[in-house]
């Protein structure tokens, strides 16, 4: 029998499920003319889901006999997920208006993806992990190919689906190995089995599970889908992929590493260190030759995931707290960057994605140029912007955990990565002007973009609050 306490703990997912199903019926019977209303209603559902996190039933406890965990860690991650999802819904209409391709299913798919992501960060069992991950992935495959008439979008959806199926197979194989050698699918049971010593079977299971999760966070060497999908998918969808699923997948990876594989820390720590180093290096080097802004931001996301994994590699409460703070700051920088990309339109209003088209932008669109510069400097980790603080936190946690070499490598690679961010700023402010962009056509986009820039510039004022909630989130795992 399902207990009332368990239902209260999963209230965010229940709100999203009910809201998504109702809006799906509205879209099915009333058609695409309801798209604006469905979009704003979806934002309202996300706000309601976030508000339902505020309460004792959702801040601590295990639901459904240990399948689902409601704690501060999950709550922190879900707030970031809902924020990124809401922004991705709000900025979509203007982008799709040019091709008339926005349908009422778009915000509903994002709601269903959020249900899966919520289950991911709250999972305390391998079964919940897989169900949540696949629910998010199925919606994401459709979103990637949402512009059916666009060959790039269709190609992005197909590539994402094929490689996602491969990653799911790898993950399932790892899950089967862990279950076979530990005799349980619960994170607590797996931790108890690993505490008695790590067998070869359990070690292989850990490697396969972490490999499957590495695909979801687009970490090297499972990053190959990221540039093509980011470039081909509609820009609002790319902004969504670069933010919300990243938080969910990395949150899930942290929970699996700490709660399920905690006793085998020396084993998984080596894997995470390698993945972090490879992601930082490839993300820094591969982006240098890019000419498409979305592909460049794809490699930037790989690079940033590497930095976030530095905190996880520490394996300490301070390291996990640093990673969560990094994710919060990364979400703001990434959403702001893609809002700038959405402003890149030629005089006819068609989207433009080449970096060369930004030449001389500072002379025609001073506000947009300033926002671009703020986000690029912050992503590069230039003080005193908020992006510098994010990197400082993970490096500090790594040094405190004795991983000084990892921190030194990360700092050195930051210098390489700064090159391509500064190249964009140089193009905007110092190159000969290219054809002018169309005037900014959305006040909502402008307000959100300005708000993100303000957070990046003045974010240090939020440090006491961010530090406290990140520490509380990390403490709930240990």
Automatic annotation (TrEMBL):
Alphabetized UniProt keyword annotations: Cell membrane, Membrane, NAD, Oxidoreductase, Quinone, Translocase, Transmembrane, Transmembrane helix, Transport, Ubiquinone
One Gene Ontology biological process: ATP synthesis coupled electron transport
A single Gene Ontology CC term: plasma membrane
EC number of this enzyme: 7.1.1.-
Protein origin, superkingdom: Bacteria
TM region positions: 6-30, 37-56, 76-97, 104-121, 127-146, 158-179, 203-225, 237-258, 270-289, 296-314, 320-342, 367-386, 398-422, 443-462
UniProt-annotated location(s): Cell membrane; Endomembrane system; Membrane
Catalytic activity: a quinone + NADH + 5 H(+)(in) = a quinol + NAD(+) + 4 H(+)(out)
Pfam name, any one: Proton_antipo_M
Membrane topology recorded in Swiss-Prot or TrEMBL: Multi-pass membrane protein
NCBIfam families: NDH_I_N (TIGR01770), PRK05777.1-3 (NF004440)
Biological function: NDH-1 shuttles electrons from NADH, via FMN and iron-sulfur (Fe-S) centers, to quinones in the respiratory chain. The immediate electron acceptor for the enzyme in this species is believed to be ubiquinone. Couples the redox reaction to proton translocation (for every two electrons transferred, four hydrogen ions are translocated across the cytoplasmic membrane), and thus conserves the redox energy in a proton gradient.
Subunit structure: NDH-1 is composed of 14 different subunits. Subunits NuoA, H, J, K, L, M, N constitute the membrane sector of the complex.
Protein name, as recorded: NADH-quinone oxidoreductase subunit N
Source lineage: Bacteria, Pseudomonadati, Pseudomonadota, Alphaproteobacteria, Sphingomonadales
Gene this chain is encoded by: nuoN
């Amino acid at each position: 029998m399902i207990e009332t306490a368990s239902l209260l703990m999963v209230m965010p997912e229940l709100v999203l499920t009910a809201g998504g199903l109702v809006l799906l019926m509205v879209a099915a019977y009333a058609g695409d003319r309801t798209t604006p209303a469905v979009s704003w209603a979806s934002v309202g559902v996300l706000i309601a889901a976030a508000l339902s996190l505020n309460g004792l039933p959702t801040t601590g406890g295990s639901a459904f006999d240990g399948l689902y965990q409601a704690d501060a860690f999950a709550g922190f991650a879900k707030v970031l997920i809902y924020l990124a999802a809401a922004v991705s819904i709000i900025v979509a209409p203007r982008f799709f208006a040019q091709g008339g391709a926005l349908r009422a299913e778009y915000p509903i798919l994002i709601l269903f993806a959020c249900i899966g992501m919520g289950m991911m960060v709250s999972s305390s069992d391998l079964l919940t992990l897989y169900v949540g991950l696949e629910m998010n992935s199925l919606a994401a495959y459709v979103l990637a190919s949402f512009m059916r008439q666009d060959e790039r979008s269709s190609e992005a959806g197909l590539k994402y689906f094929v490689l996602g199926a491969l990653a799911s197979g790898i993950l399932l194989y790892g899950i089967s190995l862990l279950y076979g050698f530990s005799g349980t699918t619960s994170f607590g049971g797996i931790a108890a089995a690993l505490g008695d010593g790590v067998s070869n079977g359990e070690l292989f299971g850990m490697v396969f599970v972490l490999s499957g999760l590495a695909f979801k966070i687009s970490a090297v060497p499972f990053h190959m889908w990221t540039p093509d999908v980011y470039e081909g998918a509609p820009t609002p969808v790319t902004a969504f992929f670069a933010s919300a699923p990243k938080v969910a997948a990395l949150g899930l990876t942290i929970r699996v590493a700490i709660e399920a594989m905690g006793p085998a820390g020396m084993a998984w720590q080596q894997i995470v260190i390698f993945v972090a180093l490879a992601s930082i290096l490839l993300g820094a080097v591969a982006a240098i030759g890019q000419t498409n802004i979305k592909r460049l931001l794809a490699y930037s996301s790989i690079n940033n995931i590497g930095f976030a994994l530095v905190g996880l590699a520490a394996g300490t409460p301070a390291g996990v707290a640093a990673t969560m703070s990094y994710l919060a700051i990364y979400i703001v920088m990434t959403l702001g960057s893609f809002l700038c990309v959405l402003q890149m339109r030629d005089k006819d209003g068609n989207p433009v994605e080449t970096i060369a088209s930004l030449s001389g932008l500072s002379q025609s669109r001073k506000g947009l140029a300033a926002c671009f510069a703020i986000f690029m400097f912050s992503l590069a980790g230039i003080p005193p912007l908020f992006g510098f603080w994010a990197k400082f936190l993970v490096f500090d946690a790594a040094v405190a955990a004795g991983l000084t070499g990892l921190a030194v490598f990360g700092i050195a690679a930051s210098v390489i990565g700064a090159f391509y961010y500064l190249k964009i700023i140089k193009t905007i402010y110092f190159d000969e002007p290219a054809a002018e962009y169309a005037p900014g056509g959305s006040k909502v986009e402008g307000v959100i973009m300005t708000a993100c820039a303000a957070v990046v510039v003045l974010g240090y004022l939020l440090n006491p609050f961010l530090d406290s909630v990140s520490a509380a989130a990390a403490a709930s795992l240990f």
